[in-house]
Write a structure and sequence with these properties.
This protein is an alpha+beta fold and about 240 residues long. Helices cover about 25% and strands about 20% of the residues. The strands form 3 sheets. Strands 1-8-7-4-5-6 form a 6-stranded mixed beta sheet. It comes from Microbispora bryophytorum. Pfam families: DUF899. This is DUF899 domain-containing protein.
């Protein structure tokens, strides 16, 4: 992944501050409408019906673990279903799942709202758990490779599922995939505030704006987040 150097990239027109403030205020109207619509969608999401999960297990450091125990005593669970390529080295593992999960460092605020965050990996535990350690992940990591198919329910890995616990019963309340997974990607939310945005080819940006060449989530052959890991040679 490379991007056009900032010094050679195009830039917005320069205007006086009064004009800039007026156009900023016009955009703010649209932003506020977007926020209110997002709030309305979130309210509808909270009021969705839920469905009872069968008794399923995942494999963790203590062996087979019932789904209800993944909650760690909390009421809610967010699980990310992580893709895995069996037998492949770390640099060949899913760059999109790496991008999603590497952001989930600070769990205190989730825990304060009675929510546990965990990853259910598509690959075997003995093979994938060292990868989680290599990446420095602090959240619980489990393998769903040999779990009852009802856990994924026919969905391809690379999705988020949300659950509610009522005693020993577990209900699935919501799931999302594709761009819905961007809920975890705080880097994208921050880049969307900048003049050049995500710098990806699909974006509606003016001619001359910098664009990423190559895979947007890889840098010099590795998922971008791996370059800061101990033991990885400097790029």
């Amino acid at each position: 992944m490379t991007a056009t150097p900032a010094s050679s990239a195009a830039a917005p027109p320069v205007v006086d501050r009064e004009t800039w403030l007026r156009e900023r205020d016009e955009l703010l109207v649209r932003e506020k409408a977007h926020t209110r619509e997002g709030d309305a969608i979130a309210a509808a999401r909270r009021q969705l019906p839920m469905t009872l999960m069968p008794t399923v297990t995942v494999r963790g450091p203590g062996g087979d673990t019932p789904l209800v125990e993944v909650f760690e005593g909390r009421r809610m669970l967010i699980a990310y279903f992580h893709m895995w390529h069996d037998g492949k080295p770390y640099e060949h593992q899913c760059e999109g799942c790496t991008f999603s999960t590497c952001h989930m460092r600070m769990l205190d605020y989730l825990h304060a709202r009675d929510v546990t965050y965990a990853v259910f990996c598509e690959g075997p535990y003995d093979e994938s758990a060292p990868f989680a350690e290599f990446m420095g992940y602090r959240f619980p990591w489990y393998s769903a490779k040999d779990s009852d198919p009802a856990l994924a329910d026919g969905r391809d890995f690379g999705f988020i599922a949300c659950y509610l616990r009522d005693g020993d019963k577990v209900y699935e309340t919501y799931w999302t995939t594709g761009r819905g997974v961007e809920a975890l990607m705080t880097t994208y939310h921050a880049l969307d505030l900048t003049v050049y945005g995500r710098q990806e080819n699909w974006e509606n940006s003016p001619e001359g704006w910098p664009r990423v060449t190559g895979h947007p989530w890889r840098l010099n052959g590795r998922p971008t987040a791996q370059w800061s890991r101990p033991g990885v040679a400097p790029r």
